[in-house]
Structures are given as structure tokens and as C-alpha cells.
Design brief:
The chain has 88 residues and is α+β, with helices and mostly antiparallel strands. It has a single domain, classed as Alpha-Beta Complex (Sufe protein. Chain: A), CATH 3.90.1010. The chain contains two helices and two strands. Strands 1-2 form a two-stranded antiparallel ribbon.
């Protein structure tokens, strides 16, 4: 899994916050987050393992985490439920 530089993460978070600010209401923001989740590259078949499965969720969720160059944690959630894929 590729790592992302901290400045890139900060810029991406700022960009997402700006996008959400432009949207009118919570439903538009929710739809936008769903669309972003649909655009994510899926986890590999090997990453959909018991080792990465989140226990206790109502949906099936897998979480793969790594560290970026600045040693910040980066996680990549995956679920078959479109509303929460990418931000479960």
C-alpha cells in the first residue's frame, strides 16, 4: 500500500472540508461522501481476511492500516454497504 505524505493528507482534508462547505444540506453532504466511497479502489481479496475484519459492526467492514512517512496512521476501510465504504 502506498504511503501519503502528511502535507498531502492535510491538503486532502482541507479540500474535502471546502467541498462539504459548498454543499447545501446534510443530505447533499451525505450523498457526496457516498460518491467518494464508491470511487475508492477496493481492497484486495487477501485484505478481506479475518485479520482485517472489524468485529462488532452491524455491517461487514474490513480495515487495513499503515503509517505514512510522518508516522501518522492511515486506514483504508472497506464494506459492501455503499453508504459507509471508505469512511466506515
Amino acid at each position: 500500500m502506498d504511503t501519503v505524505a502528511p502535507s498531502s493528507i492535510d491538503a486532502a482534508v482541507d479540500e474535502l472540508a471546502d467541498e462539504l462547505d459548498l454543499l447545501g444540506d446534510w443530505e447533499q453532504r451525505y450523498r457526496h461522501l457516498i460518491d467518494l466511497g464508491r470511487d475508492l479502489e477496493p481492497l484486495s481479496e487477501a485484505e478481506h481476511s479475518d485479520e482485517h475484519k472489524v468485529r462488532g459492526c452491524a455491517s461487514q467492514v474490513w480495515l487495513v492500516a499503515s503509517r505514512d512517512a510522518g508516522q501518522r496512521a492511515i486506514s483504508w476501510p472497506s464494506t459492501p454497504a455503499p453508504p459507509s465504504n471508505g469512511w466506515a
